[in-house]
Design a protein that fits this description.
461 residues; 15 strands; 15 helices; 7-stranded mixed β-sheet; alpha/beta; 4-stranded mixed β-sheet
């Protein structure tokens, strides 16, 4: 145990305002203090080891304790610790922009750096509105996103978010955002699955066509962009049905609406490719990203835009009047470059693709538990939906979810040595997204802990 553990506990409770945290739960309990990471494991102040089943927060792609990334940060800090990108450049930002653009699909060659994902989403909406004003379509400013989708916490990004309970205490928010159905095939309306009730391509067409309906309802001359994650996070990992994104692309082209691929989670290997758009074969107009760009060793995000979206800003006195003090921080850019070097040298993307079937198969073994309704996801990004009845897909009500997820499952998983997320934003799910260096032994360890805890959870229902 740390020699100043008692002091840290008091200081945490007296001064540290943690994010998305029920502080009341620590009135009679210690705050968990994580002090060290090594590979796919974390260690707390008592020396207990945990399997990092969430890669921090979908961030730690290469795992913990990498000396190469730490040394890249130290070297850069010794040369140039800071300079903003406001009318000036520095070498690491230039090199990283070129590198990221080389990975991005199509003509997404313009990289605008931020410090995180919410800022990248905010930047994308501002760019969309600014672009259409400069090109003679000033009424195009509205945004469409999906039900239960999470896109960030800043005022604009939160407005795009489709989670009412996260928004209501901060309303009124930025107006002009609208929601369409997500791609949760497990909960798909029967009429959307075709005559046989199992046609995922028909479901994909139906879900995509709801975007066209929303655009028509609002007026195509007023809609600027559609924000979609390749695999939707909130609600528990909803992959796209076959043909979904191709249909969305057709709709966006028809109505002259920008397709923004929000890849804050899905980019940089989470789905076995640098970008989720590549995995699912569609061409966005903008990609937003963050998290895995540095594997969490320093904060950094980016908005990657097509050449045509920057073109109006390249002439005369026009400018994109937007930026962040720490966007494109020299140290963060140096870490990102070292991170991407490691991706290539160590074959990280190929590793994820090779091990994905084993990860899926291991988690699907849990379907023999009566509490497990669905296992879904792609790459190293999965959700397990919990149900009261497998046959009918009956879910838990709000009070039951509260007792199940927060009262038992979340605490028990951590106590058994697995750090992951038990989430009720939508139907109750457990989310798993380990570092991309995880192997079958780690999948097996996850499955055993999950099995132990979910067995006990079912016994309490």
């Amino acid at each position: 145990m740390l020699p100043d553990y008692d002091h840290l506990q008091k200081a945490a409770k007296d001064h540290l305002w943690m994010h998305f945290t029920r502080h009341g739960s620590y009135e009679a309990a210690d705050v968990p203090v994580i002090v060290r990471g090594e590979g796919v494991h974390l260690y707390d102040a008592h020396g207990k080891r945990y399997l990092d089943g969430l890669a921090g927060l979908f961030v730690s792609q290469l795992g913990h304790g990498r000396r190469d990334l730490a040394e890249a940060a130290a070297t850069q800090a010794g040369e140039l610790a800071f300079h903003p990108l406001w009318s000036y450049a520095h070498p690491t930002a230039i090199r990283l922009a070129e590198r990221v653009a080389s990975y991005a699909p199509g003509d997404l060659n313009r990289v605008f750096f931020t410090t995180g994902g919410g800022e990248a989403v905010e930047s994308a909406w501002k760019l969309a509105k600014n672009y259409f004003k400069l090109t003679g379509r000033p009424m195009k400013h509205k945004v469409i996103s999906r039900s239960i989708a999470y896109h960030g916490t800043t005022q604009g990004a939160l407005s795009i978010t489709g989670l009412p309970l996260l928004k209501q205490q901060f309303e009124p928010l930025v107006p002009s955002t609208f929601r369409v159905p997500n791609t949760n095939a497990y909960r798909a309306p029967a009429h959307a699955l075709g005559p046989g009730g199992d046609d995922l391509e028909a479901y994909g067409r139906w879900a995509a066509d709801q975007i066209a309906v929303a655009i028509e309802n609002e007026g195509p001359d007023t809609v600027a962009a559609v924000f979609l994650e390749p695999v939707q996070n909130a609600g528990g990992c909803f992959p796209p049905p076959p043909g979904y994104f191709q249909r969305v692309r057709e709709i966006c082209d028809r109505y002259d609406v920008l397709l923004v691929s929000d890849e804050v989670i899905c980019a940089f290997g989470r789905l076995g490719h640098m970008f989720g758009a590549e995995r699912y074969g569609y061409q966005p107009d903008i990609i937003t990203c963050a998290k895995g760009l540095t594997s969490g060793y320093s904060p950094l995000g980016a908005m990657i835009a097509s050449d045509r979206l920057m073109e109006p800003f390249l002439h005369g006195s026009e400018w994109f009047a937007h930026g962040y003090t720490f966007g494109g921080h020299p140290v963060s850019c140096a870490v990102a470059l070292a991170n991407l070097d490691a991706f290539e040298e160590e074959g990280v993307l190929a590793h994820v693709r090779a091990n994905e079937p084993g990860f899926r198969a291991t988690l699907e073994r849990l379907k023999d538990l009566p509490i497990v309704g669905d296992v879904r996801g792609d790459g190293y990004f999965y959700g397990i939906e919990l149900v009261k009845d497998q046959a009918t897909k009956e879910s838990f009500d709000d009070d039951e979810s509260e007792r199940l997820l927060y009262g038992f499952v979340s605490k028990s998983l951590f106590a058994e040595g697995l750090y992951c997320r038990a989430d009720d934003r939508g139907d109750p799910v457990i989310q798993l997204a380990p570092p991309l260096v995880a192997t079958q032994e780690h999948f097996d360890e996850m499955e055993q802990i999950l099995r132990t805890v979910l067995d006990k959870a079912w016994a309490q229902i």
